[in-house]
Design brief:
By secondary structure, the protein is mainly α. The chain has one domain (9-72). 78% of the residues lie in helices and 10% in strands. The protein has 2 helices and 2 strands; from the N terminus they run ββαα. The chain has helices at 12-44, 49-72, and strands at residues 2-3, 7-11. Strand 1 (2-3) and strand 2 (7-11) form a beta hairpin. It starts with a strand and ends with a helix. The mean pLDDT is 85.
Length: 73
């Protein structure tokens, strides 16, 4: 599959690599967010609601998208 406007510079392999790297980046960011939340809770005894909300938002979005694709496939 070639993209008409961009030409030969971008093909399906490039788009697949971009999709995978974006997915890995999102997962790593969520894990780091939840890890930092746990560190601050166990060491400083402080609830970081912003970090918890970022991590939980990722989990909710990821699970809902997995369910959506599973039902629609």
């Amino acid at each position: 599959m070639k993209i008409p406007l961009i030409g030969k510079a971008i093909d399906e392999r490039f788009l697949e690599h971009r999709r995978r790297s974006t997915s890995v980046a999102g997962i790593v960011s969520a894990v780091l967010s939840l890890g930092l939340f746990e560190y601050r809770y166990f060491v400083n005894h402080h609830w970081s609601w912003d970090l918890l909300s970022i991590g939980l938002a990722f989990v909710v979005i990821k699970m809902s998208m997995m369910t959506w694709f599973w039902l629609k496939d």
